[in-house]
Amino acid sequence: MINISNISLGLILGSGVDLDENLISSKEILMEDNNGIHNKVVYTCYLNGSGLLVFKGRQHFYEGHSFQSLTSGITLASEMGVKNILITNAAGGLNGNFEEGDLMLINSHINFVDKINHKRTSFPYSKDLKNKFLNVSNKMKVKVHEGVYGYYPGPAYETCGEIRYQKKIGLDAAGMSTIPEVYAARELGINVIAVSVITNLLRENKPQQTSHDEVLLIANKASEKLNSVLPGFVSELN
Ligand code: HPA
Questions:
Q1: Mean pLDDT of 156-160
Q2: Among 17, 85, 99, 204, which is disulfide-ready with 13 (CB 3.0 to 4.6 Å)?
Q3: What b/e readout covers 134-172, taking b as 16+ CB neighbours within 10 angstroms?
């Protein structure tokens, strides 16, 4: 069993993103909830000698949840004394250099879901955690882009017109999560970074219908990249 004062990292696993079971030990489930679109599991485990608090599956704005409900995992992490959080998500790629399955570290974002009532911060992402993540990725030869994430309410994927607009305003990726958790983490004084898994490419002239199942499949495959960075990343914490 994990000593909860010993948790180095809170990890939110986005749609289809998963931890390699071979990397972890002493897994202990704290909560399980099968209501809603995504099954949700909260557990602690060890990875490379570090304690992790893991959230698999999350709630989304389009399911009708409040800011408090969308960020309840961050509140729990804070209550457990977690000081660092890595948030992951699945996102559509807008940047012409991105390929399916690529990772993108979120440098900044635009929030298109205006109903969030919270204190905004201009630079919520931890420079220190970003540098650590990029250094380990580099060492492990995992390509990581950096870019701007657009947070949309969903649940529909983009129309061709929306893709054209999103590209024009300079977004690199679009998705339906993460930003409430980023704000909540900052408000609670937790260091936070966020990584998007590019599960599909948004091309205005080549409409490519994606589906939730396809997003899950690609994110699952790309999890391998995240799993090769995580052991080195957690060993850099504390
Ligand atoms: N758009 C918005 N959210 C997403 C997408 C997308 O294309 N892919 C995965 N999440």
A1: 90
A2: 17
A3: bebbeebebebbebbbbbbebeebbeeebbeebbeeebb
